[in-house]
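Worked example (supplementary).
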Amino acid sequence: MDCSGIQELLSEYIDGTLDAKSVQAVEEHISACQDCKEALDSLNEVIKELNALEPVKAPADFLEKIHQRMESRSNFRRLFKTFFIPFKIKIPLQLAAAAFASILVVMVLNLQKSEYRKMQLLKISNSQWLTEKSKTDHLSPEFEMKAKPSGPVVQKAPKSSSDIKQNLPPQSYRVKTFARPSNQRKPEPSSPVLAAARSSAGKGQPIALALVLKPVALGGAYAPDADMQTTTFARSDKKTMEKEKSEKDVPGGKIETGQKNRTDDLFLRMTHITRSLKGKILAKEYHKQSNRLVSIHVQIPAKNYASYCKELARLADFKIPPPALSAESLETVNILINIAYPGQ
Amino acid sequence: VNNPIKKPSHLFPRDTVLIKAVQAGDMAAFDKLVQKHKDRLFNLVYWFLGDYQEANDCAQETFIKVLKSIEKFRFESAFSTWLYRIAVNTCKNRIKSSAYRWKKRTISLETFNGSKNGNPFPDIANGSPTPVLALEKKERMMRIQKAINSLPEEQNRVVVLRDIQGHSYQEISDITGLNPGTVKSRLARARLALKNQLKGRI
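After joint prediction of all chains, the assembly is encoded as:
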């Protein structure tokens, strides 16, 4: 046996676990081989060193530290028990977790739904405001075309019906003329609330009224030609209001402000009448150039219809006497009022 | 010569009696069990890990694990074998943990000074008669420690169990779960490596 083979056996030779035959081979070899003898000696020395190593002892507080660690663990366990044992929960943890997760999901979805609803409401109110505010900007081109030559279409209707008759079929002329502005507004991106109000409350066409304002209604100071170049007036546009105020202070701007105030006045009066009879204003329309109120869409309780017409008669003349209400007992009626100004 | 296992002191009752008492819920018996085995276990764990604090932590953890699973102990092996098996596994997990590896890489030098992480050899530092001898002994100790710690994990385990703790091949096989042939060959390789590292320096 060569040296490397013998050296592989030395470890076991030292431990005394070799069989007799191997022991004999090792002993014969090392008696002849100095290298292997030295290897055996140094190996023996190392092992002796290791055997003689001072044992490292545990620190004095070893047991105490174990107690501390166990206590903190059992504290946690006690806490766990106090939370869960009283309820006698036998449900597996996974099941409980799944239930909890599903509850969470439902809650979140509900939350989102209500949030979505809120958003929708917000959108509706916003768009309602916008449509009312920008009514003049959104007039249909058709309406504008008719309006351009001589003010609102309505005025033209009864007087020079022959002109229009060429373009429009006679039977539908009156209704169409009055109803068009509101009908055309429908496809606009206006608020669903408004549309719903229009369609549901009146169940069909609104009652159309054509009025010619009495000159006295506007305070007698009405000047037909001084109505140009006024700024757009919106119901609750504070900026415009402030602008008006500042304009009022400037001498020379009087006519314009007067004009605006009249328009404002008319709308306020209409509002007042409507509100006093428990109705509400659904929409209004201003003439784009002259900025005068040309049509107003209101909804009032059916029982107040007669008194409403009476109130209007004080303010303006009816071109056509107001139609009587149909036998159907509607709770509310929609009225589309077109306003013409005297002298046109 | 196959060294006999150093038997723990006879001040303590036999393991079987203590274990049965612990299994019956007697915590004082557990304390006795800990006191009886803590030093030998601590030495084992210390030479496995090469760090006093880590060894302390691991040894405590081992005893806590013992208490947790002592109900399952069926007296099929010696309690010490079972205890050391748990210790070996605890140390294995510790060595695998990234925190241990990071620590070993960064402060291994301080560990060998023995000052930062507790002094594993208090008697050498304090009450030795001749300081020069004490210093020599300490240096030799540190060299051996360094050599043992530089061994691959599986060789370190076998040589610690055999040459420092004095277990028989069969016991090592029981504790580590290796077959006796593997134990022999690993031990031979470990001893050879130590001899080469420490040649002429002891």
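Two points are worth noting when inspecting this output. The longest strand of chain A covers residues 293-301. The interface with chain B takes residues 7-8, 10-12, 15-17, 39, 42-43, 45-47, 49-51, 53-59, 62-63, 65-66, 69-70, 73 of chain A (CB under 8 Å).
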